[in-house]
């Protein structure tokens, strides 16, 4: 278990301020505007990127905030587009042991975050091999909801699919059986890769007790190498969308950038465009 260390408020504040001032609006997919006088990003812009209130972030930068949790520090590291070395430094300044280094990390690389920034009007999100969402565009949040808010095994979309009926609402009911098989196969792949003592093992153990459907599919021992590229999704305001899934894999981090697109000129394309507007409105309201 990570050991809590002494928080260095002054150095944390200085580090946050300098990293914020070093980031330009273009680095995170924002427009510069003609009236910008601030060096780098504004505090409210960084707070929005980190999914936290401007007041909370401002207090950290002013060396008067509470000790941030590891979850908060991880969000700040992604929001400020920190490298892994910078992330580790941030954790130490915040009074926490730096996360263990491994080939499979939950830290999203600055390069992958830059790609995500340029997809602001498109449903896209970065996910781990266990189906845990690490970062989303506003359009993805409008479609799937905020999937970064979950903790424990609920972070896995595969676990939620079988344990939480509301997780299925984004797909038409007639497509549920094929998605059930795909999620079960994903979980099996992760289980075989990481072992029974891993988070994947915990998901399997829980679902075998909680879901008869999963237990039946698990017994079939089905393995899949790829996901279907064509999907039907539904949203309560825009309706059903025929989308194509594109995947960009970061082998070093063990992460996947999932991007949803639709054929230009189709009704689904128009609905995706509308979804991007809804996503912007939702994010503006919650922040």
Q: What level of helicity do the residues show?
A: 40-55%
Number of domains: 2
CATH topology of the largest domain: Beta-Lactamase
| Distance N to C terminus | 32 Å
Counting DSSP E segments of at least 2 residues, the number of strands comes to 5
Structure, explained:
Helix content is 46%, strand content 12%. It is of the alpha+beta class. It folds into two domains: 9-93, Orthogonal Bundle (434 Repressor (Amino-terminal Domain)), CATH 1.10.260.40; 110-286, 2-Layer Sandwich (Beta-Lactamase). A five-stranded antiparallel β-sheet has the order 2-1-5-4-3, sandwiched between helices. α9 packs across α11. The longest helix has 20 residues, at 267-286.
Write the layout of secondary structure elements.
Elements lengths: L8 H14 L20 H7 L4 H8 L8 H10 L4 H10 L16 H8 L6 E5 L4 E4 L1 H7 L12 H7 L12 H19 L4 H12 L1 H9 L9 E6 L3 E12 L4 E7 L5 H20 L1
Antiparallel strand pairs: 1-2, 1-5, 3-4, 4-5
Helix pairs in contact: 2-3, 2-4, 4-5, 7-12, 8-9, 9-10, 9-11, 10-11
Outline of this structure?
With 287 residues, the protein is α+β, with helices and mostly antiparallel strands. It has twelve helices and five strands.
List keywords for this structure.
287 residues, alpha+beta, Beta-Lactamase, 2 domains, 12 helices, 46% helix
């Amino acid at each position: 278990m990570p050991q809590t260390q002494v928080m260095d408020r002054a150095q944390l504040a200085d580090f946050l301020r300098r990293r914020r001032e070093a980031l330009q609006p273009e680095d995170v997919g924002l427009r510069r505007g003609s009236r910008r006088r601030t060096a780098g990003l504004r505090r409210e812009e960084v707070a929005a990127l980190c999914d936290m209130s401007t007041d909370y972030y401002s207090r950290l930068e002013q060396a008067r905030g509470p000790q941030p949790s590891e979850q908060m520090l991880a969000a700040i590291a992604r929001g400020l587009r920190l490298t892994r070395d910078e992330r580790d430094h941030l954790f130490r300044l915040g009074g926490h042991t730096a996360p263990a280094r491994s080939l499979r990390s939950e830290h999203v690389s600055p390069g992958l975050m830059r790609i995500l920034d340029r997809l602001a009007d498109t449903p896209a999100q970065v996910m781990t091999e266990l189906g845990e969402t690490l970062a989303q565009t506003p359009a993805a949040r409008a479609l799937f909801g905020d999937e970064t808010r979950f903790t424990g095994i609920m972070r896995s979309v595969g676990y939620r699919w079988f344990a939480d009926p509301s997780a299925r609402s984004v797909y038409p009911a007639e497509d549920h059986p094929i998605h059930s098989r795909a999620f079960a196969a994903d979980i099996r792949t992760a289980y075989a890769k990481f072992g029974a003592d891993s988070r994947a093992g915990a998901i399997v153990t829980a679902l075998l007790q909680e879901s008869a459907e999963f237990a039946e599919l698990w017994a079939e021992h089905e393995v899949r190498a790829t996901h279907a590229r064509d999907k039907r999704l539904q949203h309560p305001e825009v309706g059903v969308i025929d989308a194509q899934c594109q995947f960009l894999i970061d082998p070093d981090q063990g992460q996947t950038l999932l991007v949803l697109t639709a054929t230009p000129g189709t009704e689904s394309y128009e609905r995706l465009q509308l979804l991007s507007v809804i996503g912007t409105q939702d994010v503006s309201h919650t922040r």
